[in-house]
Write a sequence for this structure.
């Protein structure tokens, strides 16, 4: 990671969970990290904690709604003006609605796909961030784009609530590989990686069911038995932690410039699928 010291990383969805831990780890490694989210108070607190801890890098909080094209453009313009562009783009922000294919609401589907939806979009907003970041630093040597994907982008689990969500993550898998091919043809020497974790101990599932407490409670036990999701303090499964995903980020960044790690699929040892 020494060659990344002093260089600039953008981490989307950096206020909580995986994004926050990834941002902190990159700051610890000496990078200048722009952490963006719709609510930056948590990022501001994390930035202060990084400073107190004496990390050699710096965390720069930035308010940005990834569903708002103008805010995305403004953010990249500010990064270019203040830091001369982005060297590493970590696309982490994500959203899920518990919507099945047969009984789901189209509004929930659209929130996961439409660029102007109220939720952070996996495929379209991610693509837009990629396009803008590349336009600001297309000639960057040894740049890297990392998409925080999901195990759901590689297999469809038998839980109807996450079937449409899985389709959006399959799109991220395809987008990452397509991006790798186009970057190679363009001779940019910018690498592209998809990191797909399985069950991670974060608040993601609680946010998924935040409008339906009964469904959330029932889902905890159903998925522990069927999918080995860690929704309770069950001894059946020790989930991944956010730092495990962050370590994967530094692993792929730390690979020699001629080595491209295209995909990492990681899961807890006890996870069924």
């Amino acid at each position: 990671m020494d060659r990344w010291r002093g260089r600039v990383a953008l981490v989307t969805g950096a206020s909580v969970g995986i994004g926050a831990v990834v941002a902190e780890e990159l700051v610890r490694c000496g990078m200048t990290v722009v952490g963006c989210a719709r609510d930056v108070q948590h990022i501001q607190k994390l930035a202060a904690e990084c400073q107190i801890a004496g990390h050699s890098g710096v965390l720069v909080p930035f308010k940005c709604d990834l569903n708002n094209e103008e805010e995305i453009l403004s953010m990249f313009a500010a990064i270019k003006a203040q830091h001369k562009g982005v060297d590493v783009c970590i696309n982490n922000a994500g959203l899920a609605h518990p919507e099945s294919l047969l009984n789901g609401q189209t509004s929930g589907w659209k929130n996961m796909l439409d660029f102007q939806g109220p939720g952070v979009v996996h495929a379209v907003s991610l693509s837009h961030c990629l396009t803008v970041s590349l336009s600001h630093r297309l000639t960057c040597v040894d740049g890297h784009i990392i998409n925080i994907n999901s195990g759901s982008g590689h297999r469809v689990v038998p839980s109807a609530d996450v079937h449409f969500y899985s389709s959006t993550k399959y799109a991220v898998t395809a987008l990452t590989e397509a991006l790798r091919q186009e970057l190679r043809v363009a001779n940019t020497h910018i690498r592209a990686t998809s990191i797909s974790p399985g069950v991670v101990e974060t608040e993601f599932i609680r946010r998924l069911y935040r409008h339906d407490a009964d469904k959330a409670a029932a889902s905890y036990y159903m998925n522990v038995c069927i999918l080995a999701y860690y929704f309770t303090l069950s001894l059946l499964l020790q989930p991944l932690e956010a730092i495990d995903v962050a370590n994967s980020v530094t692993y792929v960044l730390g690979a020699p410039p001629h080595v491209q790690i295209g995909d990492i699929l990681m899961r807890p040892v006890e996870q069924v699928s």
